[in-house]
Specification:
The protein is mainly alpha-helical and 419 residues long. It is built from 24 helices and no strands. Helix 4 (53-68) runs parallel beside helix 14 (236-254), helix 18 runs parallel beside helix 20 (352-367) and helix 20 packs antiparallel against helix 23.
Length: 419
C-alpha cells in the first residue's frame, strides 16, 4: 500500500515517471523489511542487458535516413505503387510508413519522418487537415509492429524471450495491418470525394524498377538486417550497428551528411533512446518489489481462475492495456505491465510471443488515442490540425487495430506459422 501511495503522490505532483517508479519500489522494499540495496541492485540489473543497446542503434539508423535522402526514395516507390488510386496519397503515406518501419523501429519516428514529406503533399492536393494528419499518425503505428521494433526489444528483455522470434512473428500481422489500414483509407477517401492526385515531380511516372533501383540502398538495408538476423548471421544488436554504419556510409558517399546534421541526429537519438532505456531501470526495481511480496503470483491465480482459458485472458489483458494506453506511453506500458501479466500467461500456457504481439498492437492503439496519443501530437503539429478533430478522424483506424488484435488472439497461428 505504501508503494502505491508514494507512486500516486509523485505522479500527481508532476514528477517524471522515472522518479515515481523508483521511489515506489524503494518505499515498498524498506517498508516490508527488505534491505534498500535491493532497489539499487535492481536498477543496475534493469540496464545490464546487451540487447537493449540495439534500441540506440536502430533509433540512430532511422534518424540518419532523412538527411541521406533514403526516406524520400521509399516514398517515391510507394507513390508509384498506389499513388494513382482515389485518395492515393493517403495510401502512399501508409505504404511509405510500412517501408520506413523496416528501418526505424519507432512509431513516433516513422510518423514524423514520413509525415514531414507526405502531409504537405496531401494538403497541396486539397486533403482536409485532419485526414492528412490521421494518415501520418496511423501509418506511423506500423513502426512498432514491423521488425525491427524497439518496443519488441523491450518486451523481449522483460519477458525473457528472443527478440528475433518476435521480429519474425510480427511480419504477417504487420503486413495485414498495413493492408487493412490502406483499405479503410481508400474507403474514407471515396466517402470524402478525394480524387487521384496529380503526378509528383514525375516520380510516379517512372517505371517501378527504376525507382527501386534508385532506392537500392534503402531497399537493401532491411533485407540485410532481417535476413542476417533470421539466418543466424548476427544478433539484433549487431544488426543495429550494421544499420548505423550503412546509413552513415550512404550519407557520406552522397555527401549529404554534415557535422551539424549528424550532431542533430545524435542529439535526437540520445533523447529518444535514452528516455526509453532509462525507464527500464526503475521499472525493474518495482517489478522486483512486486515479486518479493508475491503480488503478480497472487494476481495470476485470481485472473487465471477468472479467465479460464488463454484466449479470454488475452482479451482481458488487451482491454486493460487499451485503457492504460490512454494515459501512458508505450515504453512505460511494456516495462510496468509485462511483469504483472507474465505469471498469469505462464500459468495458462499463453505463448509469450503472442502475448508480446498483443502488447504491441495495444500500444499501437495508444498512439492514436488521447490524451496521451503520441502520434496524434506529432501529426497535429505537422498538419496544423486540431487535436480533437484528429482524434475523431483516427477512430476507424483504432477500430482496425482492435479488430486485428481480436483476430490474432483467436487465430494465433496467423503469426506463429512463420516461425
Amino acid at each position: 500500500m505504501i508503494a502505491l501511495i508514494v507512486f500516486a503522490v509523485l505522479v500527481w505532483i508532476g514528477l517524471p515517471l522515472v522518479a515515481p517508479l523508483f521511489w515506489a519500489a524503494f518505499a515498498g522494499l524498506t517498508a516490508s523489511g527488505n534491505d534498500a540495496y535491493i532497489a539499487a541492485e535492481a536498477l543496475y540489473r534493469g540496464l545490464d542487458n546487451l540487447p537493449l543497446s540495439a534500441i540506440v542503434g536502430f533509433v540512430l539508423a532511422g534518424g540518419l535516413m532523412g538527411p541521406t535522402g533514403l526516406t524520400e526514395e521509399l516514398v517515391d516507390c510507394a507513390r508509384r505503387l498506389v499513388g494513382r488510386a482515389s485518395g492515393g496519397l493517403a495510401m502512399v503515406t501508409i505504404l511509405a510508413c510500412l517501408f520506413f518501419s523496416c528501418l526505424s523501429g519507432s512509431g513516433g519516428a516513422t510518423c514524423a519522418a514520413v509525415g514531414a514529406i507526405m502531409i504537405p503533399s496531401m494538403l497541396k492536393e486539397g486533403y482536409p487537415k485532419e485526414y492528412a494528419g490521421t494518415m501520418a499518425a496511423t501509418g506511423g503505428v506500423l513502426g512498432i509492429l514491423i521488425p525491427p521494433s524497439i518496443p519488441m526489444i523491450i518486451y523481449a528483455s522483460q519477458a525473457n524471450v528472443p527478440s528475433d522470434r518476435l521480429f519474425m512473428a510480427g511480419i504477417i500481422p504487420g503486413l495485414l495491418l498495413a493492408a487493412l489500414l490502406m483499405f479503410v483509407a481508400w474507403l474514407d477517401a471515396k466517402r470524402r470525394g478525394l480524387t487521384a492526385p496529380a503526378a509528383a515531380d514525375g516520380a510516379d511516372e517512372l517505371p517501378l524498377w527504376r525507382l527501386i533501383w534508385r532506392a537500392k540502398f534503402a531497399v537493401a538495408l532491411p533485407v540485410i538486417i532481417l535476413g542476417g538476423i533470421w539466418g543466424g548471421h548476427f544478433t539484433p544488436t549487431e544488426a543495429a550497428v550494421i544499420a548505423v554504419f550503412w546509413a552513415l556510409a550512404v550519407g557520406i558517399f552522397r555527401r549529404k551528411l554534415t557535422v551539424s546534421s549528424i550532431w542533430g541526429v545524435l542529439t535526437d537519438t540520445a533523447l529518444l533512446a535514452g528516455g526509453a532505456v532509462i525507464l527500464l531501470a526503475p521499472a525493474t526495481a518495482l517489478a522486483r518489489y512486486l515479486a518479493i511480496i508475491g503480488a503478480p503470483q497472487q494476481l495470476a491465480v485470481e485472473v487465471a481462475a477468472l479467465a479460464g482459458s488463454p484466449e479470454v485472458f488475452l482479451f482481458i489483458m488487451a482491454a486493460a492495456l487499451f485503457l492504460c494506453g490512454l494515459f501512458a506511453d508505450t515504453i512505460s506500458m511494456i516495462a510496468i505491465m509485462t511483469p504483472i501479466f507474465l505469471p498469469t500467461a505462464h500459468l495458462l500456457g499463453v505463448d509469450p510471443t503472442i502475448m508480446g504481439l498483443v502488447f504491441i498492437l495495444c500500444c499501437e492503439a495508444g498512439f492514436l488515442t488521447p490524451p496521451f496519443g503520441g502520434n496524434l501530437f506529432i501529426a497535429a503539429r505537422l498538419s496544423g490540425s486540431d487535436l480533437g478533430r484528429l482524434s475523431v478522424a483516427a477512430l476507424p483506424y483504432v477500430g482496425v487495430i482492435m479488430l486485428l488484435t481480436a483476430i490474432l488472439i483467436i487465430f494465433p497461428k496467423l503469426a506463429l506459422f512463420i516461425l
